[in-house]
Amino acid sequence: MRINEYDDRDRERIVPEPPKRVDAPVRTAFERDRARVVHAAASRRLAAKTQVVGPQSDDFVRNRLTHSLEVAQIARDLARALGCHPDITETAALAHDLGHPPFGHNGEQVLDRLGEPCGGFEGNAQTLRILARLEAKTFDSDGRSVGLNLTRATLDACTKYPWLRDAPGTKFGAYADDVPVFDWMRDGRSDRRRCVEAQVMDLADDVAYSVHDVEDGVVADRIDLGRLASAEERRAVWQTVREWYLPDAADDQLEQALAGMQSQASWPTASYDGTRRSLANLKNVTSDLIGRFCGAVQGAMLEAYGTESFVRYRADLIVPEQTLVEISVLKGMAAHYVMRSDERIETMARQQELLAELFEALVDRPDRLDPAFARDHAEAVDDAAGLRVVIDQLASLTDASALGWHRRHVVGD
User: Which of 6, 21, 29, 165 pairs as cysteine with 11 (C-beta 3.0–4.6 A)?
Assistant: First the structure.
């Protein structure tokens, strides 16, 4: 890997920083970025935010923080293998879920609807807002917060969707009032192409939650891989795969993907029973599938590009079609057996109602906001800006604190 292929513009920060003390540990700019994300308050809050199953429901299942750590490990290893900077890519992975609100994607949908008058809500746009504004560390000469003041290359790698909002319900990477930092980060680029480090982070996220959501579902006794021996059962799962991820996928294509994964020697041949042996077998198939997916991508990249270093916009990640389908099959299993369960649907409805009620309470009484957000609200230039601050506050809450705020500000009233 040729680290010197990252130049001074890649290492530039919004607010220039003086050299560190001579007696301080010598770290690169990108190593400092990683440390800032690790130590951020927003990172700590991820430990109490839903991944798939609520973090309070079981000691084993993943939360947003443990998921982010696993994504970071996959992203770092893949980056090292491909020749892009492992610190940049790992930092992007550690930061990729910082903008998620309480109750996972369910909470994201509620805030998007409630925030329509100020431009909606998107977890990835909120991540940029946290990194470049809301997380307290650095201020510019005008007294405005610039968040963690990350380098351009790292901030760009954290941006999964490098464009503004097209329409309600669509993915995007920046709100209208964050355009100045977005334009600085993109450094004159007007297209939607992602840097390769962001592409590696995105793939690592897909790989991690596809295999780990199935693992969590198996351990929580919601997924039994043995049921897939039934053709009828598989057809039901394939329908979910099409509805959620691959609308044009044919049954035989999905069957082939499943068969490919089942060919792994570690694929379970017996139902999970909670013993150490059974858990070890499950861990082994998880590890083997991660290696299978990342190995396929590494092979495709080497075939296409040779051994050149994949830095920023000098390459695009190549993910073989078979790998994409296999990942989608795993995600479809989790969607079919976990996300679509009657219990989860009822829980999600209660969560939506709770967030909507709390939103109304804070809009009516902005003095209830935390001090930092109350200051932002007092300085808001119009109603839309004030509404954005309420959304910022709600997005910062964990699952548990959202419940506590609701009891205090809604039920208590």
Answer: 29
CA-to-CA distance for 383 and 177, rounded, in angstroms? Answer: 14
| Amino acid letter for position 59 | D
Q: Which residues pair with 13 in a beta bridge?
A: 151
Tell me the per-residue pLDDT of 279-337, one tens digit each, with 9 for 90 and over.
999 999 999 999 999 999 999 998 988 877 788 998 899 999 999 999 999 999 999 99
- Taking residue 352's Cβ as centre, other Cβ atoms within 10 Å add up to 16
* Strand partners of residue 145: 139
DSSP annotation of 13: B
Tokens (6 digits) for 29: 């700019």
Helix or strand holding residue 294 (H, E):
helix 276-305
Judged by DSSP in three states, 63 sits in strand
18 pLDDT band, cuts 50/70/90, is: confident
Gap between the terminal Cα atoms of the chain: 60
Element (H, E) at 57: none
3-state secondary structure of 39: coil
Domain edges within the chain: 3-186, 207-344, 347-411
Contact between 294 and 78 under an 8 Å Cβ cutoff? The reply is yes
- Strand, helix or coil at 218? helix
pTM as predicted: 0.92
Angstrom distance (rounded) from CA 51 to CA 100: 10
* Residue in this structure with the two tokens 């982010």, named with its chain if needed: 68
The DSSP code for 207 is: H
Q: Residue 293: which of 216, 219, 217, 202 has the closest Cα? A: 202
Q: State the CATH class of domain 3-186.
A: mainly alpha
Q: What is the dihedral of CA 67, 72, 75, 77, to 10 degrees?
A: -120
pLDDT higher than threshold 90 for residue 1: no
DSSP code for 164 = B
